[in-house]
Design goal:
heterotrimer, A alpha+beta, B alpha/beta, C alpha+beta, A: alpha+beta, Ubiquitin-like (UB roll), FAD/NAD(P)-binding domain, 7 domains, 7-stranded mixed beta sheet, 52 strands, C: alpha+beta, Folate-binding fold, 4-stranded antiparallel beta sheet, two-stranded antiparallel sheet, 16% helix, globular
């Protein structure tokens, strides 16, 4: 055992060494150690480098509040940067490295920054790096040149690019009572709540429960506090209405008493069992929350307070009592309050020498005096530590008489040899979650601290959070909170006797000692007391300006130790009180949370994949699949050696000349049913559906309330009160929601029911001059000739014994049918049609050919119905009924929607026999210059096998009037310029003779 | 007040930094001004600056209910770009970009505008065509824009998952190199200092409680610091527009106030040298000079003034983060916050005279207001000074909704949460 | 945030779709009052405080719910079925 490790005591297991490495050096520690305690036990004082000045830094705290000792964990080939050494439990094989240093922790070139000293004070970068106003470095160039170096010097750890092999898991939990923090108050609260039978979750961020009981050195009941905590925990663990989550940080308090917590399941294990996650993200919905989050110690700020070896007094006490580790062998304790005397006594008990207790106060309580006597060493009342000396560790503290009332020093400093300076500026309740829940914290002058706001949600505070200053008080508050949380009658409270001393809970209002040299407030971000005064001088005096100008409290510890001292220094500069400077609003998370946990179980599958029943056939038959929203659809069924263009031209030509089939199962389908279904459709479509006979379909157009086009599609009347509406693939969800809103909110009196049946029907379009003959050959129980199945007619029959509905409608412009069957039969129907089509030369075609056929016909899709076009823009004004009102009818004739120079749908023909591209723009001139004169853009383009030309559809300003004129495509993104003819959007069979044939 | 420069920094460093003066004065309100600008955020401050600089109107007060810059200029994700689709927007934002490019010199304040590029990812051929359309539109108005191939993207951003096995594989992207990021708070402070140096009074902790009227005309405001009169009262209060207009007797506006969350990770060494957006969701990420990855996603999607977000959206954004950057699973989220966005009915802003005599209105910035800070102030100042719109903002009228002259970049109609 | 669905009970906000200001009245379908239509489509009360709004339980029963919610605190004050509001004027079957 090293001289820094006590022979006994603490929660560590000394039976076998745990091996780990730090910056390539091998060390050993004990099971139960944190990385910080283990390195301290090994005599390591230098843990990291600070953000800005790259000053050597040690470990300052013992928990989540650690600002300085941040490391990168290397595990599974993945880097995990910025982990506080205080929160990292060691295990055999743990490998970590220090951060923000080059080339090594001991020798860091970044430390040269210190030479720049006051020239790089707070906000200096706002005043320089602007560069010359003229010349090659004008504008932003000089700044961007400097920025490269600034970025490299800044930052802490380095992240990798590799995908994390670890598993992350999410859990939802519901409970009557969530107790946050398993210190004395939390344990008591959980006991009281659980006793009533309520379901309780008790969450503790540390590896074990007990909180301050583990290092207070007190006696609760008859036993040491730590044993009391362990026994109480054991009793709770036996209950089936209570769940204890250790290593679980509740980090967010959201609306509706929803809390978020991170459970670090595997971080402390050398290897996780198969399937066990690294982290578990909890969403906990609690009827009542008991916040027993305790308090965090803060330092007094003094020059030289960042040397390794300067540490919070309570942290040193934790290292001594929880880990049996000495922060140093000869300590100076510096305080403004009684609590630090306990720390001094604990250090002495653990085997360290206490050289001196330095207290800014002249008067202290008798109990503190007694502790000082036990601790030994000098008691210097009315004194302050004014500086430290040492390189990579403290070697001495300088002490000088100090007057609390005036805040001034007198006399001359004397040196006290010490290898650690343990500092306490009092305690700040951990109000973060309470603040997140809503409300402004309240300043308490006695405790010199912010207490939580009045609850804005259903939570109850207990213990240190609520201002309890003794364990006795914390236990009682915990009990009361536990009873109140379940609305239980005030039950008799058998107070365990606590051995605590009669300490004075009031710290002196001193949080900074003036003096020469850098006095650090925010240790991680290197914000000094002088920086805060500079911010004051420059007018950055509100708490938010202070924070933003100096970066105070913006580091990974989020100002847990620096917030109140920083406010105190600003308040002094302003001559105001601390609450008049203001309090920062705390925001989630309380302490940093892994992104992996928050994305748990969604990482690879952020959106579902939607596949049609025929998907496997498409893939097996050479289809190149295309992602369309969440759906996957065949783009082409390419043959060996074919280009995309060759493939779709072949497929499209087959449709025009013979017969082809395409999977249209992705179309949105909505069953519209009820006595007033027809009336409803008349209101939502621009055209009339009530006149549609049964077993007929009609093409319909819908507008939004604002008069622009929402969607189009055919709707089939299957019965008097039974319609099957189809929508475009992209708008299926949107249309469904639009209709449901109208029915539920606007016209609840209409007796209509809507059901989304997109996934219930499979659909196949069969198109081409041979489609009728082909269907006739395979459909049974119905005829499909022109008499039985006229244009827009519907028949019911069977194919391969599968019940089908066949509607004669056409998107391609050819004689065509859509065949629908239950989704479960989709694949079978597809194969049956494919087989039946073989004698007719059946070809499967994909989206590219579908697009080609519709471009030739001038039919619109989502590229034209883009939310900005009107029915008139798309030549669909013939569908606007003048006989009835419909959604959008009152708004569609407004000034902006009827201007003649709106973008209107036209056809385009390439005149240089080169392809057009979707997204190319149209201009009037052909000089190749790019000017601010775009007339519109190409919405879709293809090679037209029917016309043997490259064609496109475009939305062009005043396009209807331009038909027959020439223009030019201007596509600088793809360097495509050339002449086009603007033509009617009906580029093939404008009379529609083929589909009516 | 002294110019800021490397020299002044050295001089002051030798004097122990004791001679720096406040970046702006903290004056008492005067009884009357030529113009009162309500709202001490980026737009209000830049409006005051350009009123003084471009129009010689320096008898101006900017009144702010809290601390200067406490609105969205102090809580955004700092992206500056002009890559809008519709020319009414892109021309305006491109003008802003030009002002950004010289802003640090203009203000003698380093706003750290870093033209590191903004890259939009495409995941389908259709999206690539849409990006081509947008890129072409930008090139036609004189803004920069190029397509990038997947290989080029992979070289530029090695952290990105460019594998074909991603749920939404990256097949290309649209890059605007002149776009980038700026230090958001510095923009507010730089404009405040610039306006102050030209004589503008900046009145913090001064909340408007009502309007002073003579007949129909607005002639000043009553505030928590007393009545202040002015010939012209200009509003630039973003998410509080509805509240302030209600004080003027107008209780319905084409604006909804929504909450938008933003996120920052712990500081990292350089990880991402540009700003990227995800095309299969609503996600964007950049890295601050301090090293934090700054990112965000969609609106929470409901009316809110609470400046607090909810958990499902956090999870959604983190999922998108890992979909793009699989290496970030063990990097830790440091802080999240909620901003208040003034969502208009077409996703585009409003800069106009009226709607009451003596009143001028600037609002509807949705979540894109930061990048508009210079041009919004420039054009609003013009509108106030000349009582007519600047040509670049002539389309940003309040009555355009009723007249159907909407500027709907996303084509979503009057559903603000979708813009 | 939790939203109380009258059918399904308290459910997480992620199950719902926001449908906006519930203070708007849609004019009679045949109304040609442009001002009334404009108000319905474009104008919002947008209060900082209690807001009457419509949510759809899109990930649940799909009913539309009238929720009164405080936009400053997100506290839900009341909720009811949107349909119940007008059930009284349900047309008699003819």
């Amino acid at each position: 055992m090293s001289p820094r490790r006590a022979a006994q005591g603490g929660r560590i297991d000394r039976s076998g060494p745990v091996r780990f490495s730090f910056d390539g050096h091998a060390y050993t520690g004990c099971a139960g150690d944190s990385l910080a305690s283990a390195l301290l036990a090994n005599g390591v004082s230098l843990f990291g480098r600070s953000f800005k000045y790259h000053r050597p830094r040690g470990v300052f705290a013992a928990g989540v509040d650690e600002p300085s000792a941040l490391v990168t964990v290397l595990r599974d080939g993945i880097r995990e940067p910025n982990i506080p050494a205080t929160m990292l439990e060691i295990y055999d094989g743990l490998t970590v490295e220090s951060q923000n240093r080059m080339p090594s922790l001991a020798f860091d070139v970044g430390a040269l920054n210190q030479l720049a000293g006051p020239a790089i004070a707070a906000g200096f970068y706002y005043k320089t790096f602007m560069g010359p106003v003229f010349g090659p470095l004008k504008g932003t160039r000089f700044w961007m040149f400097c920025e490269r170096f600034i970025r490299r010097a800044a930052g802490l750890g380095r992240a990798g690019y590799e995908k994390d092999p670890a598993r992350y898991e999410r859990m939802n939990a519901f409970c009557d009572v969530l107790v946050v923090g398993a210190g004395p108050a939390g344990l008591m609260a959980a006991s009281a709540a659980a006793e009533s039978g309520a379901s309780v979750i008790l969450a503790e961020q540390d590896a074990i429960t007990g909180g301050s009981a583990n290092w207070s050195g007190e006696t609760i009941g008859e036993t040491p506090a730590a044993e009391w905590a362990a026994a109480t925990t054991d009793a709770l663990a036996g209950r089936d209405n209570l769940r204890i989550l250790t290593r679980t940080t509740v980090w967010g308090y959201y609306d509706g008493n929803t809390l978020a917590a991170l459970e670090r399941v595997g971080d402390h294990k050398p290897a996780s069992p198969a399937g066990e996650p690294k982290h578990r993200h909890w969403t906990i919905r609690a009827k009542t929350v008991i916040l027993a989050t305790g308090a965090l110690e803060r330092p007094i700020v003094f020059p030289g307070n960042d040397r390794p070896g300067v540490m919070l007094a309570g942290a040193a006490q934790r290292y001594a009592l929880e880990y049996g580790v000495l922060a140093g062998e000869r300590a100076v304790v510096f305080t403004n309050n009684d609590n630090a005397y306990c720390s001094a006594a604990a250090m002495r008990d653990a085997g360290a020498e206490v050289a001196a207790i330095v207290d800014v106060r002249r008067e202290i309580s008798p109990a503190a005096r007694e502790l000082a006597r036990q601790a030994g060493g000098e008691l210097l009342l009315g004194h302050a530590v004014v500086d430290t000396e040492g390189g990579k560790a403290v070697t001495c503290a300088k002490v000088q008489p100090f007057d609390t009332a005036s805040g001034t020093l007198s006399g001359s400093p004397k040196s006290i040899t010490a290898d650690c300076v343990l500092v306490s500026g009092g305690w700040s309740p951990t109000i973060h979650l309470a603040s997140q829940a809503g409300g402004k914290p309240v300043w308490d002058e006695q405790q010199q601290a912010f207490l939580p706001p009045a609850p804005a949600q259903r939570w109850i505070g207990a213990g240190g959070l609520d201002g309890a200053t003794t364990s006795e008080e914390a236990l009682r508050q915990g009990w009361d909170a536990g009873r109140a949380s379940v609305d239980g009658p005030p039950a008799p409270y058998a107070a365990p006797l606590v051995s605590s001393l009669e300490l004075d809970a009031r710290p002196a209002p001193v949080l900074e000692i003036p003096g020469k040299g850098k006095a650090f407030v925010d240790l991680q971000h290197d914000v000094t007391a002088d920086d805060i005064r500079l911010a004051h001088r420059e007018g950055f005096v509100s708490v938010e300006h202070l924070k933003r100008y100096t970066t105070l409290g913006m580091a990974t510890d989020q100002g847990k130790t620096s917030n109140v001292p920083g406010l105190a220094i600003m308040a002094a500069a302003l001559g105001k009180s601390i609450p008049d400077v203001g309090a920062t609003r705390f925001r989630p998370p309380y302490s940093p949370v892994s992104i992996g946990s928050l994305a748990a179980e969604r990482q690879a599958e952020i959106k579902p994949e939607r596949l049609t029943p025929m998907h496997d056939w498409h893939v097996a038959n050479g289809a190149t699949m295309y992602s369309a929203g969440l759906w996957f659809r065949p783009m082409i069924y390419g043959q060996p050696g074919e280009t995309v263009e060759q493939a779709y031209v072949r497929e499209a030509r087959a449709v025009r000349e013979g017969v082809g089939m395409v999977d249209v199962s992705t179309l949105g389908k909505i069953a519209v049913q009820g006595p007033e279904a027809a009336e409803f459709l008349d209101r939502v479509y621009t055209n009339t559906f009530s006149t549609l006979p049964v077993n007929k379909a009609r093409y319909g157009l819908m507008l939004r309330e604002d008069g622009f086009v929402l969607d189009d599609g055919t709707t089939w009347r299957l019965g008097a009160n039974d319609f099957l509406m189809t929508t475009t693939t992209a708008n299926a969800g949107k249309v469904m929601q639009h209709l449901e809103y109208l029915l539920d909110v606007v016209w609840p009196q209409l007796r209509v029911h809507l059901t989304s049946v997109t996934d219930q029907w499979a659909g196949i379009a069969v198109a081409g001059p041979k489609s009728r003959a082909m269907l006739a050959a395979c459909v049974s129980q119905t005829a499909v000739d022109d008499a039985a199945l006229p244009f827009m007619g519907i028949v019911h029959g069977r194919i391969d014994d599968i019940p089908v509905m066949v509607c004669r409608l056409s998107f391609s412009g050819e004689l065509a049918y859509e065949v629908y069957c239950g989704a479960g039969h989709g694949a079978q129907l597809w194969e049956a049609l494919m087989a039946a089509g073989q004698p007719f030369g059946m070809v499967a075609y994909g989206l590219e050919a579908l697009g080609t056929l519709r471009i030739e016909k001038g039919h619109v899709t989502g590229a034209e119905i883009d939310g900005r076009t009107t029915a008139r823009d798309l030549h669909l004004d013939w569908m606007l009924s003048r006989k009835k009102p419909f959604v959008g009818s009152a708004m569609m004739d407004r000034e902006g929607l009827i201007q003649p120079d709106r973008m209107q749908l036209v056809g385009l023909v390439s005149l240089d026999n080169r392809p057009l591209n979707g997204g190319g723009h149209i201009v009037e001139h052909g000089d190749g210059e790019i000017r601010d004169d775009s007339l519109g853009h190409i919405t879709a383009a293809c090679y037209s096998p029917a016309r043997r030309q490259y064609i496109g559809l475009a939305l062009v300003r005043n396009g209807k009037a331009r038909v027959g004129t020439h223009a030019f495509v201007s596509d600088p993104m793809r360097d495509r310029f050339g002449p086009v003819e603007i033509v009617s959007h009906h580029m093939y069979d404008p009379q529609g003779s083929r589909m009516h044939g | 007040m002294a110019e800021y420069s490397a020299l002044s920094i050295l001089k002051n460093a030798f004097a122990g930094n004791r001679d720096w003066k406040p970046a702006w004065r903290k004056p008492e309100p005067k009884p009357t001004y030529d113009v009162i600008v309500v709202g001490g955020g980026g737009h209000g401050l830049s409006t005051a600056y350009y009123l003084a600089k471009e129009h010689g109107i320096s008898n101006v007060a900017v009144i702010e209910k809290g601390w200067l810059g406490s609105g969205n200029v102090g809580r955004n994700t700092t992206a500056v770009r002009s890559n809008y689709l519709l020319p009414e927007n892109s021309r305006f934002y491109e003008f802003s970009m030009k002002l950004w490019e010289n802003l640090s010199h203009e203000l003698n304040y380093n706003v750290m505008f870093s033209q590191r590029g903004v890259l939009n990812m495409a995941h389908t051929p259709g999206q690539l065509d849409d990006f081509a359309r947008r890129g072409n539109a930008l090139r036609h108005i004189g803004a920069d824009s190029v397509m990038m191939t997947t290989a080029e993207i992979a070289r530029l951003i090695p952290a990105l998952d460019v594998s074909g096995s991603a749920r939404f594989p990256i097949i290309g992207g649209l890059m605007q190199w002149r776009a980038g990021t700026a230090r958001h708070d510095a923009v507010a402070w730089g404009y405040a200092r610039g306006a102050d140096r030209r004589g503008v009074d900046i009145l913090e902790n001064c909340e408007v409680t009502g309007f002073l009227r003579e007949g129909d005309r607005i002639v000043g405001v009553s505030t928590s610091r007393g009545e202040i009169r002015a010939n012209k009262v200009a509003l630039a209060v973003a998410g509080s527009t509805g509240q302030v207009m209600r004080l003027a007797g107008i209780d319905r506006m084409p604006i909804e106030s929504h909450v938008l969350q933003a996120f920052v990770t712990e500081s990292l060494k350089p990880f991402l040298d540009t700003v990227v957006t995800y095309g299969a969701g609503h996600f964007y990420m950049g890295q601050s000079d301090k090293g934090g990855l700054i990112f965000g996603g969609d609106l929470d999607g409901y009316n809110s003034y609470a400046q607090r977000g909810n958990l499902p959206l956090v999870e959604e954004v983190m999922s998108e983060t890992l979909a793009m950057f699989p290496g970030l699973a063990r990097v830790r989220l440091l802080r999240s916050w909620g901003g208040l966005t003034d969502m208009s009915m077409d996703g585009s802003p409003i800069i106009t005279t009226g709607p009451l005599p003596g009143l001028y209105l600037n609002c509807g910035w949705c979540y894109g207001g930061f990048k508009a800070t210079p041009s919004s102030g420039f054009c609003f100042a013009w509108t106030i000074a000349r009582d007519e719109p600047h040509p670049l903002t002539a389309a940003f009228t309040l009555d355009r909704f009723h007249r159907g002259l909407v500027i709907d970049d996303k084509g979503q109609g009057s559903t603000p949460r979708l813009h | 945030m939790l939203i109380p669905c009258p059918y399904c009970g308290q459910r997480d906000v992620s199950e719902f779709t926001y449908q906006g200001d519930g203070n708007r009245t849609r004019p009679n379908p045949s109304s040609t009052d442009r001002a009334a239509w404009n108000a319905y489509v474009y104008d919002r009360t947008n209060p900082a405080g209690e807001h009457r709004e419509i949510w759809q339980h899109s990930g649940g029963c799909r009913a539309h719910i009238v929720v009164v919610r405080n936009t400053l605190t997100h506290a839900v004050v009341a909720s009811s079925m949107a349909r119940a509001r007008t059930r009284a004027d349900r047309r008699e079957p003819t």
